[in-house]
């Protein structure tokens, strides 16, 4: 949320092991983290003692810096180096501290270290940018796929999109780099995406990748000219064949391109997909604005939208709720969207909300979780109560692991072991010392959200929703076939599928 260093502590053994999932999230999403991990005393290392594990080995894959401190005099310099490495490589730095060293006082004079860290600035190559200008001017149907690298260039992106008449599609963690209701915005791409985004990608003749390492290349166009802009040269051409690579800051690069490029008069492609996106929003409203019970997840997002402040932070868990939030919440550029993007860790919604409120105490924080994701870390709601962090946690309670059920069905299988036990999360919130609201009818949804937003206390809104699969904006033939298979299997299982009698001379296949 801040780009600044996160610091975590643990004891040896199980404490250190528990850090791994969060640290892999940091690694995948390029967040600088310092770990100070305990270890058994030095004279016990290698003796298979109580709680001893090989710390350097377990952190080897996740860390950009991974060292064990062997003397107290080393500690200041090693901490300094670990922090610098975490910032420079945007990753996890681990220092393992045996218990006896932690207890010692530094006796000798230690080397002084500077506390200043200067991040390098990569200036984009003018020749590459000029080549990009040539391709952009020739293109009739350009499209932009923007990622988190565009978060510091929101105004420049909007101006660039308008100048070259290119619709904008985003990766999931980049939600908010352009307002969802901006006329040039087409939403997300892929399984969580919109139909206009899918179709525009199929239709384009120039793909501009901006600050993204989008992994689902099957949703990208085949054999079109590609320009990639990224501050990390290693990302350029990593996943998609690139004709022009610009290694540089998105903000500076777009500002230069906006100065060099004339306003495009070829706006047919943009206008075509503006109309398609307007139709898409109208289709979405049909589900969002229903007032029926059982409650649909789309209705919940629509009502959350009404209480969301202009600078709200959304901490979104992994699962079906990810799809509903990505597709139906209309983000403003002044709001933030927090999620476990590259690792896709369930259970991230509540700790993400707690961290957001700690980092930005004056901003509204709303957590969106499925019941499966929330129960993975629900005990941390006590932490929110302990520190009086007024977060609003909205739980989409369908009593199942919905995304896994959907994925099983999309593969043509019957859902297996995805059901969860019924649980009253509102009562749990009250038992923890927070506010709890149980919503079983649509009429209860709006007043519960408004009440939670008005109280200065941690709150849980437990919404009983209808189980609904998050159908992709565009279904593939294989997915349609698989759903058909799954439907037939269900009918067989229930004994309701009646086959016609076999006529003489014919055999069933």
UniProtKB/TrEMBL annotation:
Matches recorded under Pfam families: TPP_enzyme_C (PF02775), TPP_enzyme_M (PF00205), TPP_enzyme_N (PF02776)
Ranges of residues in domain Thiamine pyrophosphate enzyme TPP-binding: 317-463
Top-level lineage group: Bacteria
PROSITE patterns membership: TPP_ENZYMES (PS00187)
Keywords: Thiamine pyrophosphate
Similarity comment: Belongs to the TPP enzyme family.
The protein's name: Thiamine pyrophosphate-containing protein YdaP
Gene that this polypeptide is encoded by: ydaP
């Amino acid at each position: 949320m801040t780009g600044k260093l996160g610091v975590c502590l643990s004891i040896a053994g199980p404490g250190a092991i528990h850090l791994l999932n969060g640290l892999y999230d940091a690694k995948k999403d390029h967040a600088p983290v310092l770990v100070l991990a305990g270890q058994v005393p030095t004279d016990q290392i290698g003796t298979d003692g109580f709680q001893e594990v090989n710390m350097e080995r377990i952190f080897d894959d996740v860390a950009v810096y991974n060292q064990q401190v062997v003397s107290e005099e080393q500690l200041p310099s090693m901490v300094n180096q670990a922090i610098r490495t975490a910032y420079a490589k945007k990753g996890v730095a681990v220092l393992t501290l045996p218990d006896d060293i932690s207890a010692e006082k530094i006796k000798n004079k230690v080397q002084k270290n500077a506390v200043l860290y200067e991040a390098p600035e990569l200036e984009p190559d003018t020749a590459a940018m000029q080549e990009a200008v040539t391709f952009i001017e020739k293109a009739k149907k350009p499209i932009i796929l923007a990622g988190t690298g565009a978060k510091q260039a929101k105004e420049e992106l909007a101006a660039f999109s308008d100048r070259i008449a290119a619709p904008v599609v985003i990766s999931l963690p980049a939600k908010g780099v352009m307002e969802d209701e901006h006329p040039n915005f087409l939403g997300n791409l892929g399984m969580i995406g919109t139909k206009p985004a899918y179709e525009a990608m199929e239709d384009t003749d120039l793909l501009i990748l901006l600050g993204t390492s989008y992994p689902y290349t099957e949703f990208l166009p085949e054999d079109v000219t590609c320009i990639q802009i990224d501050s990390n040269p290693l990302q350029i051409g990593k996943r998609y064949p690139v004709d022009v690579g610009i290694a540089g800051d998105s903000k500076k690069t777009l500002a230069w391109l906006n100065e060099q490029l004339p306003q495009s008069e070829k706006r047919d492609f943009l206008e075509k997909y503006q109309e398609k996106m307007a139709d898409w929003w109208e289709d979405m409203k049909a589900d969002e604005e229903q007032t029926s019970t059982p409650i649909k997840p789309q209705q919940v997002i629509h009502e959350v939208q009404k209480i969301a402040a202009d600078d709200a932070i959304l901490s979104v868990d992994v699962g079906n709720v990810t799809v509903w939030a990505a597709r139906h919440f209309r983000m403003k550029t002044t709001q933030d969207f927090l999620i476990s993007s590259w690792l896709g860790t369930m259970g991230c919604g509540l700790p993400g909300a707690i961290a957001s409120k700690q980092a930005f105490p004056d901003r509204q924080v709303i957590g969106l979780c499925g019941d499966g994701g929330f129960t993975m870390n629900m005990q941390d709601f006590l932490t929110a109560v302990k520190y009086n962090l007024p977060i609003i946690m909205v739980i989409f309670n369908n009593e199942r692991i919905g995304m896994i059920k959907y994925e099983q069905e999309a593969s043509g299988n019957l859902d297996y072991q995805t059901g969860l036990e019924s649980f009253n999360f509102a009562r749990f919130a009250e038992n923890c010392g927070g506010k709890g609201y149980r919503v079983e009818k649509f009429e209860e949804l709006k007043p519960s959200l408004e009440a939670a937003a008005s109280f200065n206390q941690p709150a849980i809104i437990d919404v009983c929703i209808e189980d609904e699969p998050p159908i992709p904006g565009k279904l593939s033939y294989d997915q349609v076939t698989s759903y058909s298979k799954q439907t037939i299997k269900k009918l067989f299982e229930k004994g309701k599928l009646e086959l016609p009698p076999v006529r003489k001379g014919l055999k069933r296949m």
